[in-house]
Amino acid sequence: MRKRKILLDFCWSVALVLLIIYRPFVGTLNYDTFLALLEANRFSFEVDDWEGSGFLNGRLYIVHIGDEQLGIYEYDSHEAMLIDSSFVCRHGTSISNPISGYMVQITWPSNPYWFKRDLIIVQYTGTNRRIINFLHLNLELFAGHGYR
């Protein structure tokens, strides 16, 4: 009985620590709320003052976390984000837009991860487990490394 109580106390302690370390966001996620979520989870980051377009139709913002980089595409509507996310192949290495007729094959330095939620798509190419866990906790993986 005592072993069970100790194990239960340990499990609750681990769960509490995980809730403190990784705080999931509740609400509509856009670029600004995503940055606030990064801050709330104690990520140190820098935002490029460059704003432009990338492979997708959303507005692309670049965020640096140490030596790592996130590409954040922001959309005016959830529907527009869903349409753009459908253009990324499940392996995350090509983007094919049947509307415009273009297709691009991308060579990444490592396996890409593609996540989405609400008004944003986040593309991450890296191996930092803390960043990957944070993205998995707060967004939906829809293509790239680990997607089945």
**How would a crystallographer describe the biggest sheet?**
6 strands, antiparallel
Q: Could you give the distance between the termini?
A: 42 Å
> Order of SSEs, N→C?
HHEEEHEEEEHE
User: Strand content of the residues, in percent?
Assistant: 25-35%
Give the spatial strand order of the biggest sheet.
1-2-3-7-6-8
Structure classification:
alpha+beta
Uncertain residue ranges = none
- Domain module count: 1
What oligomeric state do these chains adopt? single chain
Rg over CA atoms, rounded to whole Å, is 18 Å
Number of helices: 4
Total DSSP E strands: 8
Shape: globular
Mean pLDDT: 86
Question: Which percent range fits the helix content?
Answer: 25-40%
Walk me through what this model shows.
It contains four helices and eight strands, in the order ααβββαββββαβ. The protein has one domain. Strand 6 and strand 7 (120-125) form a beta hairpin. It has helices at 2-21, 31-40, 78-85, 129-138, and strands at residues 46-52, 59-65, 68-74, 94-97, 102-105, 112-117, 120-125, 140-144. The model has no long low-confidence stretch (mean pLDDT 86).
Name some characteristics of this structure.
6-stranded antiparallel beta sheet, alpha+beta, two-stranded antiparallel ribbon, 148 residues
At a glance:
With 148 residues, this protein is α+β, with helices and mostly antiparallel strands. The protein is built from four helices and eight strands; from the N terminus they run H-H-E-E-E-H-E-E-E-E-H-E.
